[in-house]
Task: inverse folding
């Protein structure tokens, strides 16, 4: 029996309150569930980040009011609210000199992410508030802040469209990092083309393969599966008759892209057509090991023989060392398959589960291994 190492400098700090839910499946079971939607996204369905600069008030003397940009921004906000500005000899409003010692205000950067499916006017998103120079944002309230989207080519700063407004009381998620906070449902979307995320153009949808699956074989198999599907229904309704197409509608353009023509029967219902396309099974892809991670439920499904490269991962208060031959006396043993010298992901997850590592932390560790290319198989993320 071989062993791999999982180091924890202080065992007591490695215990988390929430235990992980681990579901180990055979290779055939995991790969049998692979669909077009597992390895592709629809072009146009990308997440967008909104960004704004605003002011936080109500701090406990930890602001950055001594900075000129903060003071100027505060004066502009006051002016917008009807307070006269100190311009000219007869001005009665506050000047930058009057506000230079304001300690309860801070200039911040605000970000919010519009989901891949887009958004509609009135939708409320969580937003993140990050200090620029303030020592702490604890107890602060964000004043109304306009949120801008991606800059279009040739667009001037003053022409940037406002896609949302953010405001509200700040909540520190991590007491050890008081310069970063969140506002739950603090960003309210306004109507905008950016938020609608159109997914078809010229009666076509374009599928983009995820980076871990991109390749000529995968693109060709995706097109093949769509062209040979027999369960497309008439776009006149969900109860329409099953129809076969006389011509191919999907074509692999390159290792990353597959174009799919929307049949005439589905022109009035592209959503139904797209949903059927994404559900098509990919039976002819190489039977590689796979791990399926459901980020919303915390369920992790792993092929029995999925292996990982010798690597080390630092996560929070843990250092996980797999297959690097470090001294076993300092570590917790991690059993692997006795018939192979390569460590297995299932064994790593079981060891983390034994240490009561939360499913959220476990998924983050798998994601980091995936980004390093240390997982010898496909990783499918579902929400």
Result:
């Amino acid at each position: 029996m071989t062993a791999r190492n999982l180091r924890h400098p202080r065992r007591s700090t490695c215990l988390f309150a929430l235990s992980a839910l681990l579901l180990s499946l055979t290779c055939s079971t995991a790969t049998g569930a692979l669909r077009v939607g597992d390895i592709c996204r629809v072009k146009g369905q990308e997440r967008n980040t909104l960004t704004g600069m605003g002011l936080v008030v109500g701090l406990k003397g930890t602001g950055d009011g001594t900075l000129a940009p903060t003071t100027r921004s505060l004066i502009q906000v006051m002016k917008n609210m009807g307070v006269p500005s100190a311009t000219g000899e007869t001005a009665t409003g506050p000047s930058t000199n009057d506000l230079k010692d304001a300690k309860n205000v801070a200039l911040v950067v605000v970000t919010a992410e519009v989901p891949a499916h887009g958004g509609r006017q009135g939708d409320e998103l969580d937003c993140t508030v990050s200090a620029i120079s303030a020592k702490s944002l604890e107890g602060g309230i964000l004043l109304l802040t306009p949120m801008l989207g991606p800059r279009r080519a040739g667009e001037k700063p003053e022409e940037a469209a406002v896609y949302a407004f953010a405001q509200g009381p700040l909540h520190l998620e991590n007491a050890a990092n008081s310069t970063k906070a969140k506002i739950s449902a603090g960003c309210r979307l306004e109507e905008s083309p950016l938020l609608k995320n159109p997914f078809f153009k010229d009666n076509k949808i374009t599928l983009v393969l995820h980076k871990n699956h991109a390749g000529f074989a995968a693109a060709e198999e995706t097109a093949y599966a769509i062209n040979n599907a027999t369960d497309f229904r008439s776009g006149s309704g969900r109860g329409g008759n099953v129809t076969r197409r006389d011509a191919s509608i999907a074509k692999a353009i390159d290792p990353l892209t597959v174009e799919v023509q929307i049949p005439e029967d589905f022109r009035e219902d592209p959503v139904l057509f797209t949903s059927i396309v994404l559900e098509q099974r990919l039976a002819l892809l190489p039977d590689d090991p796979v791990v399926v991670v459901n980020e919303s439920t915390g369920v992790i499904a792993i092929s029995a023989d999925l292996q990982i490269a010798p690597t080390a991962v630092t996560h929070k208060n843990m250092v996980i060392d797999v297959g690097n031959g470090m001294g076993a006396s300092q570590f917790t043993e991690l059993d692997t398959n006795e018939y192979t010298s390569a460590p297995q992901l299932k064994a790593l997850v079981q060891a983390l589960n034994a240490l009561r590592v939360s499913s959220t932390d476990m998924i983050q560790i798998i994601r980091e291994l995936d980004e390093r290319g240390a997982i010898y198989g496909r990783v499918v993320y579902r929400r």
Remarks:
- The longest helix spans residues 359-372.
